[in-house]
Amino acid sequence: MAKRTIVGEPLTPSLLKELGAIESLPSTPAHFHPGREWVNSYRIWTCHGYRENGNQNVGYLRIRRVRDSDKTFKLNVHEEILQTDARVGITDGTITCRNDAPASLIRWNVSSRLLGGDGEEIPEVLAINNGTPDEGMDGITGDWCLFEAVQRLSPDRRTSLRFDLLEGMSLVKLKHTLSYRGVHPISINNEETSLHRFVQFGSGILPTDYWLDPDHRLLIVTSMNKAYILDDRAETLFERDVERARASYRNRAAQRKSKQ
């Protein structure tokens, strides 16, 4: 049996490098500003608990920030996840947020669908979630909104944001905090850089770490065995993985048919 070594520690940028999840960190465009318009695309990577194998990209997340007014902005979200038998789960959302510290929710329109192994949509699993915060929940924010909000927080030990969370844009989780935890060095391609770290704690979720570059661009988000890794190639790599999965699915289907 091949040797398998348990990871045994939380995911960090340095550990992701050791596990082969990152080889380099993207440079931030000169025009980038957290409070203006931007697009960030992330590979979604999971660890199955061992260092040697079982760790892989499973999807991507793209978030586009668009100015709406002086006091509001929109997040256009697109996420795709590769599932078993080459199925692909796709989520699209348009979220209107206040331009405040937690990017609190005003309204959202989210839809999800599923493509089969042949690439055709399965209409029975279409889901639509349109809504506004319930009365008394004006300061609530969402998971994807925090990807935006953390970039505007001050990297200061005194920074500690308190909020309620609408997990998955559907389930309320109360009493969350997002706090600054200092600077952490990392060596990539023989170059030393330092990343700002924020940590989210709260009811009903596992601790989540947000890692930002010196320009306040969110590079990595880690929680338990999952990481979101900023990567300009995220969509291209996912398309390659999906095509490989579909080819394997077609081969298996052909083999089953030949045995009938």
What report would you give on this structure?
- This protein has helices spanning 13-18, 143-149, 234-259, and strands at 38-46, 56-67, 72-82, 88-98, 105-115, 127-131, 141-142, 160-167, 171-188, 191-202, 208-212, 218-223, 226-230.
- It has 260 residues and is α+β, with helices and mostly antiparallel strands.
- It has a 13-stranded mixed beta sheet, sandwiched between helices.
- The radius of gyration is 20 Å and the shape is globular.
- The mean pLDDT is 94.
Topology:
Blueprint: H1 13-18, E1 38-46, E2 56-67, E3 72-82, E4 88-98, E5 105-115, E6 127-131, E7 141-142, H2 143-149, E8 160-167, E9 171-188, E10 191-202, E11 208-212, E12 218-223, E13 226-230, H3 234-259
Parallel strand pairs: 7-8
Antiparallel strand pairs: 1-2, 1-13, 2-3, 3-4, 4-5, 5-6, 8-9, 9-10, 10-11, 11-12, 12-13
Short description:
By secondary structure, this protein is α+β, with helices and mostly antiparallel strands. The protein has three helices and 13 strands, in the order αβββββββαββββββα.
- Major beta sheet summary: 13 strands, mixed
Overall pLDDT metric: 94
Helix content: 10-25%
Q: What is the 3D form? A: globular
Determine the structural class based on helices, strands and strand pairing. alpha+beta
What is the tally of helical segments?
A: 3
Following the backbone from N to C, one meets helices and strands in this order, namely: HEEEEEEEHEEEEEEH
Gyration radius, in Å: 20 Å
What ranges have pLDDT less than 50 throughout 5 or more consecutive residues? none
Task: Indicate the proportion of strand residues.
Answer: 35-45%
Write out the strand line-up for the largest beta sheet, numbering strands in chain order. Answer: 6-5-4-3-2-1-13-12-11-10-9-8-7
- Assembly category: single chain
Supply the number of structural domains: 1
Strand segment count: 13
How far is it from the N-terminal to the C-terminal residue, by CA?
34 Å
